[in-house]
Amino acid sequence: MIIGLTGNIASGKSTVSNMLKESYQIPIIDADIIARQVVEPGETSYDQIVETFGRDILLDDQTINRKKLGQLIFHDSSLREKLNNIVHPAVRRRMEEEKQAHLSRGGEKVIVLDIPLLFENNLTHLVDRTIVVFTEEKQQLKRLMNRNHLTEAEAKERMNAQMDPVKKKRLADAVIDNSGSLEQTEQQLEKLMQKWRIFN
Questions:
Q1: What is the mean pLDDT of residues 29-58?
Q2: Mean pLDDT throughout 97-113?
Q3: How far apart are CA 16 and CA 20, in angstroms?
Q4: What is the pLDDT of residues 142-152, one digit of tens each?
Q5: Is residue 64 within 8 Å of 46, Cβ to Cβ?
């Protein structure tokens, strides 16, 4: 079974991802990690980004200044689309390669694809079932402000730039509510694993 794991910013998706990895030994293929790998010097996507956005977006060590690039595209949808058209296909190819590598080794009952924009980019065809990690809005805002050192206005702007979490919940096969304690999140995950007969 291929499971798609998703959730909005500061929802606790990484927490659930770690639980799946640590408690259930499920391989996690993380789109965010791969997105960082495919833009490293020497990668095709890196060359395309430098060609598109210029060398001003590079740090002294010639790696991409992610903060500067993020500021460029955040308020410009055409630039954001250009970047997405470079990075997203490369990420999908690498994820597919990793998935095939796990499958060819055999013995894996479940593989999780951790994809923040699973629904936004219409990637549900890559998976058999979907899990959305959800957190109450007030808690999400507080976590995001603390984690990223943002003002309330900045944090709200980032949250509002994403798909409505309530809509995401409706689209999902299962929802893990991460508003409570870690133990409560673990209990929900355990019930889901039993329900889907992943682990007895």
A1: 96
A2: 89
A3: 6
A4: 999 999 999 99
A5: yes
Distance CA 134, CA 13 (A): 8
3-class DSSP state of 178: coil
Report how far Cα 9 is from the mean position of its chain's Cα atoms.
9
pLDDT tens-digit map of 66-83:
989 988 998 888 999 999
- For residue 199, the one-letter residue type is F
Residue 43, Cβ density class (10 Å: 0-12 exposed, 13-18 middle, ≥19 buried): middle
CB-based contact 40:91 (threshold 8 Å): no
d(CA 134, CA 177): 5
Q: Could you tell me the two tokens for 32? A: 């965010």
Answer positive or negative: Cα dihedral of 50, 54, 58, 61: positive
Amino acid at 89: P
Strand order in the sheet with 111-114: 28-30, 111-114, 2-7, 129-134, 174-177
